[in-house]
Amino acid sequence: MKNRVVITGLGIVSPNGVGVEAFHSAIRYGKSGIRHFPELEELNFSCQIAAKPEVSEEQKRKYFTDLQLRNFNSSGILYGVMAGMEALEDAGIETAGKNDEPLWDLGIIFGTGTSGTAKFREAIYLLDSGKVKRLGSTTVAQTMASGISAYLGGMIGAGNQVTTNSSACATGTEAILMGYDLIASGKARQMLCGSCSDDGPVVWGGFDAMKVLTWKHNQDPEHGSRPMSTTASGFVPGSGAGALMLESLTSAQERGAKIYAEVLGGNVNNGGQRQQGSMTAPNSIAVKRCIKTALEVSGVEGHEIDYINGHLTATVKDPTEIRNWSEALGRKGADFPYVNSLKGMIGHGLAASGSMELVAAVLQLHHGFIFPNSNCEDLHPEISAIADRSRIPIQTVSHPLKTIAKASFGFGDVNACVIFRQNSI
């Protein structure tokens, strides 16, 4: 018998809202976090708009001392720590005291794509200048891939598995499923799971060079990210972090914890970069297999899915994604589930995208609404031929949700899908 797994805490550092309360309000009302960055214009980027969280000094100092911040230069770790600690606090779980034993039943799986790129850049400059002794004692911790989980592990006193995963844009969704497996199998009682991403030209430059970013909206940032739209012209780069506290149902009930939703299960697979799949394009056969397997292991039928939180990046692959969902679920037209994409408001957060979108999905499930699809007034004709316009709302819809799906698809042809159910316990 598997342990049942529930969500008892949420945390978010997003371009359109720092903290769950601000983020909840932002997505409900369609607030954009995308803006023009003069730095990108000066560097001759084709895409000069992006999305990054606006974090105040006061917010930073809630989790870091002045001494820590003096040599701190890792935006992804900053966002991840803030989101992770908020999820812990939201769940009502206290950190271990410095002289206490570690929290043996609490672990962390917090992913990232890159870590400390700005710190790397600073280190290279110092090394090239022959100033190796000025690198500082925290350079390694800020630039190692597992820096985010290590920082969180030390702040919390986590004693179970503490690690970092990395699967491109599927990282956050994969982290949730990894944490779910540990709790379901009895190897942990509580797992803090999420993902984060650095921001800035070093991270975003490669995508600009690939010509997958939009270049048509530099003077109109809020309308630049257009998932499922006929006039979509590429994604807007973003950053941030999302976190979810997963817990066994037994543990949550023993503590009298608030429960947002139950995690029913999910699946991770790979298209092998075969057939129509490649490093950057998904193999649709694998995508549909991932969704169907997620449903199967969750004990859910395709007709039970009320809502889909899509990956939907505002590229030419959006119609393909909707087609894959339709075929995997056996649903189309007015029978297609509600679907939306957070990227219309905050761009594509890369490794952080899955976790930020998971927080948005759980908030909608918990509060019974579907946030608007920003900039999707001109729905792509290939999508409208599959799903009824009413299922892709451009205004907020109040609607009770019971069972929902979230999927992420990343470079390397990796796929992840997770199924949630409204708390009826």
TrEMBL record:
Record keywords, A-Z: Acyltransferase, Cytoplasm, Transferase
Pfam entry (one): ketoacyl-synt
One GO MF term attached to the UniProt entry: 3-oxoacyl-[acyl-carrier-protein] synthase activity
Alphabetized SMART domains for the sequence: PKS_KS
InterPro entries: Beta-ketoacyl_synthase (IPR000794), Ketoacyl_synth_C (IPR014031), Ketoacyl_synth_N (IPR014030), PKS_Beta-ketoAc_synthase_dom (IPR020841), Thiolase-like (IPR016039)
Substrates-to-products reaction catalysed: a fatty acyl-[ACP] + malonyl-[ACP] + H(+) = a 3-oxoacyl-[ACP] + holo-[ACP] + CO2; (3Z)-decenoyl-[ACP] + malonyl-[ACP] + H(+) = 3-oxo-(5Z)-dodecenoyl-[ACP] + holo-[ACP] + CO2
Locations listed in the record: Cytoplasm
Enzyme class: transferase
GO cellular component: cytosol
Residues covered by the Ketosynthase family 3 (KS3) domain: 2-422
GO terms of biological process kind: fatty acid biosynthetic process
CDD domains: KAS_I_II (cd00834)
Family in the record: Belongs to the thiolase-like superfamily. Beta-ketoacyl-ACP synthases family.
Quaternary state and interactors: Homodimer.
Protein name per UniProt: 3-oxoacyl-[acyl-carrier-protein] synthase 1
Annotated source species: Pukyongia salina
